[in-house]
Specification:
The chain is an alpha+beta fold and 342 residues long. It has helices spanning 6-16, 28-36, 127-130, 141-152, 155-161, 181-191, 198-225, 231-251, 258-264, 269-280, 284-302, 307-313, 319-330, 334-341, and strands at 21-22, 58-64, 67-74, 77-83, 86-90, 93-97, 101-105, 109-115, 132-138, 176-178. A six-stranded mixed sheet has the order 1-2-9-4-7-10. Strands 3-8-5-6 form a four-stranded antiparallel sheet. Strand 1, helix 2 and strand 2 form a beta-alpha-beta unit.
């Protein structure tokens, strides 16, 4: 009978059950030290053995009342919240992330994550009383490079190169992205893989990356719709419009002025309106109303909030104007929609 080295068995188990889902933030000093060393010792938080060097694939799913984690040089990452809001800062700009969007930072880009004490949560009162529940999904640098390489490399080239691969740098736009049912299901799948083998965890992360690349392709189509100038100019115009779009997405329940949006995009009001409609096929105010109605339908189906309170929360002057618009756009009154949804 063959003998077994128990140390090998322990390492095999740690590598096999390698879905790294943490329910607390790693110590910031320790994390920055490991990042500076490139995780060369292959040690994760709490002594976990990592399969490779480099920032690992890790999901941080936790609830915090407040936090401030500045200037972290992370991998390609998604920032999203189950409840409440957070602030993500990159390249001197800070974006508020709510429950309906996710924010993206790129490989080796410094990000700052902040949760403010007493921040109002979207579903459940004050974050100060219950905290913000967030999920940060960090795609390991080797993992994301491998996925991007496989997606952009022709099959014959893959056969020729074998296990060798060239790093594929992909730069995404630092902006808010809408979370649809597909995205939320993919995230739930990742979170549910905590007790599953590494293979399952990586398959679910791969599906999430592929989904995001599809959204990135839609952005390229938006850029192509902008006026026929040089590509670099169209990209710059898109970046400016996306900054205004982030303001709309993070503040659509409040008062958002045209002056504020145009200033955010560093454009005149006339040019901003024209280019916004050209890019997104809808006016800024039309998009605000669209977001409010989408949020209204979600709250009507998932909460017992009164119609009057819901109208006020979404920024309508009164319940009558809200109900009238809801009927015009959806075809039924809010109370009828709630009955059907439940």
């Amino acid at each position: 009978m063959y003998g077994f080295d128990t140390r090998y068995v322990l390492f095999w188990r740690l590598a096999y059950f390698a879905a790294v889902i943490l329910h607390e933030f790693p110590d910031l000093g320790w994390l920055k030290g490991q990042i500076a060393r490139g995780f060369s010792n292959r040690m994760g938080w709490c002594g976990r053995v990592l399969a490779n060097e480099g920032f690992p694939s890790v999901v941080i799913h936790t609830r915090v009342r407040e936090c401030y984690r500045p200037d972290v040089k992370g991998p390609f990452s998604f920032f999203l919240n189950v409840r409440g809001t957070s602030l993500c800062g990159v390249d001197g700009r800070t974006t508020r992330v709510d429950e309906d969007h996710y924010f993206v930072s790129n490989q080796s880009q410094l990000y700052t994550l902040q949760v403010e004490k007493g921040e109002r949560a979207g579903r459940g009162g004050l974050a100060g009383s219950g905290g913000t529940e967030l999920s940060n999904i960090h795609f390991g640098e080797r993992f994301s490079e491998s996925v991007f390489h496989s997606l952009v490399t022709p099959v014959d080239a893959i056969l020729d190169s074998g296990t060798d691969q060239t790093s594929v740098p992909v730069q995404f736009y630092n902006q808010l992205h809408r979370r649809d049912a597909t995205f939320n299901a993919l995230v739930r799948g990742v979170l549910d893989s905590a007790d599953e083998p590494a293979l399952s965890f990586e398959e679910r992360l791969t599906a999430l990356l592929v989904y995001h690349l599809q959204q990135h392709a839609q952005i390229d189509r938006i850029i192509d719709r902008l006026p026929p100038v040089r590509k670099v100019t169209r990209v710059e115009l898109y970046k400016r419009l996306s900054r205004a779009m982030d303001v709309i997405r993070s503040g659509f329940c409040g008062a958002v002025s045209l002056d504020q949006l145009a200033a955010e995009a560093c454009l005149s009001k006339y040019h901003f309106l024209r280019l916004f409609r050209k890019a997104y096929g809808i006016s800024p105010y039309g998009y605000v109303l669209q977001l409010r109605l989408e949020k209204a339908m979600a709250l009507l189906a998932g909460s017992n909030i009164s119609i009057g309170d819901l109208a006020g929360r979404l920024g309508f002057d009164n319940s009558q104007s809200f109900s009238r618009l809801f009927y015009q756009r959806i075809g039924v009154y809010p109370s009828q929609y709630r009955l059907r949804a439940n």
